[in-house]
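Morning. Coffee machine broken again, so started the prediction first thing and wrote up yesterday's gels while waiting. Chain of 86 residues, entered below exactly as on the submission form.
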Amino acid sequence: MVGFFRGTVTSLMLFPTALAAQDFEKGVSAFMYGDFATALRELSPLAEQGDAPAQWMLGLANEDGRGVPRDDAVAAKWYRLAAVQG
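Came back before lunch.
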């Protein structure tokens, strides 16, 4: 019973990470295919939670005006947040 419980807890702990990875991949794929609405919908929550690659992608979207109005200040904010994390 303890082994079952330990496995269930481990699965639950990994589940959000797996979902985040799927959302990131979906967001990047949408971005590359020009579906910026989907890209922003998938990447924004991750960026808000501190995901550096998602923050960088939002910086790129804002710098180039992809799916959002071009805004260098917002782009710089996202690039800075990503850079702080290395």
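Residues 18-84 form one domain. Going to sketch it on the whiteboard this afternoon.
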